[in-house]
Amino acid sequence: MQPRALVTGASSGLGAEFALQLAADGLSLVLVARDAERLEELAAELRAARGVEVEVLAADLTEAEGLQRVADRLADAARPIDILVNNAGFAVAEPFHASAVDDERRMHELLSWVPLRLAHAALPGMRARGRGGILNVASLAGRLPSGTYAAAKAHVITLSRALHARYRGEGVTVTALLPGFVPTEFHERMGVAPTSVPRQGWADASTVVREGLRALRRRRGLVVSDWRYRIAAPLIPLVPDRIAAGFGLGGRTS
Fold first, then answer.
1. Per DSSP, what are the bridge partners of residue 222?
2. What angle do helix axes 114-129 and 64-74 make, rounded to 10 degrees?
3. Do 151 and 143 form a contact (C-beta atoms < 8 A)?
4. How far, rounded to the nearest angstrom, does the alpha carbon of residue 159 sit from its chain's CA centroid?
5. Distance in angstroms (rounded) separating the CA atoms of residues 187 and 171
6. d(Cα 93, Cα 64) in Å, to the nearest integer?
7. What's the CA gap between 172 and 111, in Å, rounded?
8. pLDDT (tens digit per residue) in 189-203
């Protein structure tokens, strides 16, 4: 039986790239996102190009019913999930004092609660089988005081570290992937043009995904991607908060 991965936010951006690279490695896939049409297009492409089994699960993870369906799929012992990629996300463009509180709630649920809920659903089966991997797409923003998006990503980093420390000895790896800026649809969906970041500051999506999957295979609990951001990461604690707060959103996915 082919190993199987479930990827959230799989319709575009880093999620689609995760699907492409996992299929290239021979894994069967469960693709999760709201846009069923885009998921079906990607699934057909992967089946034709890679000959892997691809299941489409259209769901809005900010809705209780959609989240429960994905959690149930993860807990299905008859069709086990070997790798969970928690990738779905969005950000609120407005500053905190001007943002809609319902938008803030949805963002924090998707970025913080959903990875926790889905990891909670996946872990029992992984522990019973003595193997498994959970890759949480966090952000280098989670180490910066740059808004509520950063606060949510800080939660993802801490959650990943805690779960990795607790379950690594039982064969389950939990890895936090910390990208910087990545050219996907993320900023476009926010309605923000990312013109303030020089082209040299953008990381390649395929590199970010490859480094994340490699860290998971090597059972690492955390990886900063790519080399430019690995150089910058140790300097972040030295930057005063009033300056670091202006760095804005660290790269995200669709």
1. 176
2. 10
3. no
4. 13
5. 36
6. 24
7. 21
8. 545 455 555 555 567
Residues 6+ apart with CB under 8 A from 88: 8, 9, 15, 32, 33, 61, 110, 114, 253, 254
> Global pTM?
0.89
* 253: confidence class by pLDDT, cuts 50, 70, 90: very low
Fold of the 4-247 domain: Rossmann fold (3.40.50)
Helices (H), the chain: 13-24, 36-50, 64-74, 101-108, 114-129, 148-167, 186-190, 205-217, 227-232, 241-244
Pairwise pLDDT comparison (143 vs 192), residue with the higher score:
143
The residue type found at 184 is: T
Domain locations in the chain as residue ranges: 4-247
Catalytic positions, written as ranges: 149
Closest CA to 54 of 64, 66, 45: 45
- 60-111 pLDDT, tens per residue? 999 999 999 999 999 999 999 999 999 999 999 899 999 999 999 999 999 9
